[in-house]
Amino acid sequence: MTWRQRLLPWWLAGPALAWLLLFFAIPLINQLSVSLMTGNSEVGYDLTWSFSVYGDAISTYGDQFVRSVLYAGAATIIDLVIAFPLAYFIAYKAGRWRPFWLLMVVMPFFVSQVMRTASWKLMINDSGPLVDALRGIGVLGADGRLDATAGAVILGISYNFLPFMVLPLYAALERIDRRLIEAATDLHASRLTAFRKVTLPLALPGVFAGSLLVFIPATGDFINAAILGSPNNLMIGNVVQSKFLTVLDYPTAAALSFLLMGAILILIAIFGRVLGTRTLTEAAS
């Protein structure tokens, strides 16, 4: 290979690498330095390499960290349970109506997330028909409510991020060779066995991708907790937003952001380990 041929991949990757350097790596390094500063908004901030801010952030906002992971995890599971049958239907049963159903899946993105979440606020109002119906069938007590509860926040997160689960699952299911399923049934496997032994393992890359696309932004979400929750339901994203925009405590806000990023990376590694990296690679190929 000539030197031009060897450099060609780097030239092709150059714009993407420059984009990542300019809009990801440099801001990341900047925020890391901000997290190690001390001071306040009145006198300014100086880089003093104060790592104690990380310990203080964990001890002060540990509840919000745990709550964010629990809410995001619950929303991810709910979305997976809803999205898998829907994606399966679109991939295998929708036929010529497939584009229509895919459009319906992404249609909520044509509306602002704030407006979508605010619409749920109206639907779960204490005097609304949904709450009245749930009280009527005994799901909620006479004084029970959905608004300003943890369930409302999880419901809002699940609704807002559902398309991120459906689309990767659909892509994974649509790529499965139907002849593999037919071969399983020809070998006297029941439909349930064929699904468990063939369809589900081959759909694992979609499960993994969809779970990441839901869990990662859901963990840092602050809109649903702010609109649908109460002060007792605030997530770590609400704390970071307040620290950056209201309190102007930039070091703590930056430290919380890095702690959240580290926690997400650890959880993703564990999740990938549970599913099996080798299995995911083989299924994707």
UniProtKB/TrEMBL annotation:
Signal peptide range in chain numbering: none
Keyword Membrane: yes
Main location: membrane
Highest taxon of source: Bacteria
Pfam family, one: BPD_transp_1
The UniProt record lists the keyword Transport: yes
Localization terms from the record: Cell membrane
InterPro entries membership: MetI-like, MetI-like_sf
All residue ranges annotated as the ABC transmembrane type-1 domain in the record: 65-271
Gene3D superfamilies the UniProt entry points to: MetI-like (1.10.3720.10)
Its membrane topology: Multi-pass membrane protein
Keywords, sorted A to Z: Cell membrane, Membrane, Transmembrane, Transmembrane helix, Transport
Annotated SUPFAM superfamilies: MetI-like
Transmembrane stretches, start-end: 7-29, 69-91, 100-118, 150-173, 194-216, 253-275
Family: Belongs to the binding-protein-dependent transport system permease family. CysTW subfamily.
Protein name: ABC transporter permease
Organism encoding this protein: Patulibacter brassicae
